[in-house]
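Key result, reporting period 2: structure in, sequence out.
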């Protein structure tokens, strides 16, 4: 089996560079071919994931959620898609947590080398793909506006620092959401679309009882409020692990159309990275790729 290890040397801390030799030794011991590629610039992993897809059976990606998003977008351009394994190397590492990737390094390699991958949905927002979250509005810019150097230095505290700065920014927009021939139209401040029960490092066990990664569905939650009321809503969302609050819309669907009636120019956040601006249509590509996941994650999400 041929494996390509793709990694972002600038993602999160740089401890991974010291682990490369251990990975090489383990693959040599298992008599499996391993090639390595380090990204050179933003978008490089996406390009390489597309160009090299026909040459490998498996990709292993080391990096944060943004690096994983890049590789997935590259894979989705190809008709041939290697199975995907993840070595968490970012700040939040939501995707790795959702898939139950072991924190013990040897057990992590065992997962890739000794278990079978499982088919997982990939979500599409216009022409871009995302794995687990798409969001727009209040506080959603924090993950991609916090500088990489600061995230390396102080980790999740970088998000807190920029989050405090963003508390005064309360975008307000009139939105039309269409799904299953139903329409929701309202003045909103935040929309979150999730494929699993985790975002921004929070395990949202109260968000949904039905969330799966291979059911062809995503779930959308709306937030409406001004000033302190909005801040308290978001805080309560975190404290109650994602439970639905009074007057919030919660939508579960395989296709969602979202339109800004007032021509708002807000950017979408896709897996923690800045995405497209404005109107969008979200669709689900059922079981589009294969991923490595722990037994616990398979039981929970598949």
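The corresponding designed sequence is given below.
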């Amino acid at each position: 089996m041929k494996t390509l290890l793709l990694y972002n040397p600038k993602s999160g801390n740089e401890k991974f560079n010291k682990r490369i030799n251990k990975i090489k030794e383990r693959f040599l011991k298992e008599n499996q071919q391993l090639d390595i590629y380090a990204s050179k610039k933003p978008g490089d992993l996406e390009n390489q994931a597309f160009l090299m897809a026909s040459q490998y059976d498996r990709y292993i990606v080391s990096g944060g959620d943004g690096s994983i998003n890049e590789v997935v977008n590259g894979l989705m351009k190809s008709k041939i898609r290697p199975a995907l394994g993840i070595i968490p190397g970012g700040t939040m590492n939501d995707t790795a947590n959702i898939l139950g990737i072991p924190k013990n390094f040897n057990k992590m390699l065992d997962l890739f080398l000794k278990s079978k991958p499982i088919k997982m949905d990939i979500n599409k927002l216009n022409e871009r793909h995302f794995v687990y979250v798409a969001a727009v509005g209040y506080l959603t810019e924090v993950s991609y506006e916090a500088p990489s150097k600061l995230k390396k230095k102080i980790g999740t505290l970088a998000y807190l620092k920029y989050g405090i700065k963003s508390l005064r920014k309360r975008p307000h927009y009139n939105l039309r959401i269409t799904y299953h021939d139903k329409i929701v139209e309202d003045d909103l401040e935040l929309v979150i679309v999730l494929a699993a029960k985790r975002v921004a490092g929070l395990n949202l066990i109260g968000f949904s009882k039905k969330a799966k990664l291979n059911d062809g569905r995503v779930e959308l939650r709306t937030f409406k409020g001004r000033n302190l009321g909005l801040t308290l809503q978001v805080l309560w969302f975190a404290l109650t692990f994602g439970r639905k609050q009074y007057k919030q819309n919660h939508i579960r669907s395989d296709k969602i159309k979202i339109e800004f009636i007032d021509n708002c120019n807000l950017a979408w956040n896709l897996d923690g990275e800045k995405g497209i601006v404005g109107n969008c249509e979200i669709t689900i590509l059922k079981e589009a790729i294969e991923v490595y996941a722990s037994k616990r994650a398979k039981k929970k999400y598949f």
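The chain has two domains: 2-115, 128-287. The longest strand covers residues 280-291. This case is discussed further under Risks and Mitigation.
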